[in-house]
Amino acid sequence: MALVKDTLKAAIYAAFAEAREKTDNPEEAMNTLADRIATAVDTFVKSGTVSTTVTGTCPAGAVNGTGIGSIS
């Protein structure tokens, strides 16, 4: 799947909006904000798909192939 920048933006915006409401403990708010942003970036990166094409030669002849995988 293609990476969707707007999905990441929405998750980061939500993290800031949540942190803005926590005025009673600023340190906890910062830790929560950092955790939410880290989770948003992690989820965003892992939602991508990697596609590759392999070509080469070996003693038996040409080697060709394709592959699709996820990022983990």
Written description of the protein model:
It is rod-shaped, with a radius of gyration of 20 Å. It is α+β, with helices and mostly antiparallel strands. The model has no long low-confidence stretch (mean pLDDT 91). The chain has one domain (5-70). Helix 1 (5-21) runs antiparallel to helix 2. It contains two helices and two strands. The protein has helices at 5-21, 26-46, and strands at 49-58, 61-70.
> Could you give a short account of the major beta sheet?
2 strands, antiparallel
**Integer average pLDDT:** 91
Number of domains: 1
What proportion of the residues is helical, as a percent range?
A: 40-55%
Strand content: 25-35%
Residue ranges: pLDDT <50 for 5 or more in a row? none
Q: What oligomeric state do these chains adopt? A: single chain
Calculate the terminal CA-CA distance, rounded to whole Å: 14 Å
Please tally the β strands and state the result.
2
Strands in their spatial order, largest beta sheet: 1-2
**From the helix content, strand content and strand pairing, which structural class follows?**
alpha+beta
Globally, the shape reads rod-shaped
Rg for CA atoms: 20 Å
Count of individual helical segments: 2
H/E element order: HHEE
Q: Secondary-structure blueprint of this entry?
A:
Elements: H1 5-21, H2 26-46, E1 49-58, E2 61-70
Helix pairs in contact: 1-2
Question: Which key terms come to mind for this protein?
Answer:
rod-shaped, about 30% strand, about 70 residues
Concise structural overview:
With 72 residues, the protein is α+β, with helices and mostly antiparallel strands.
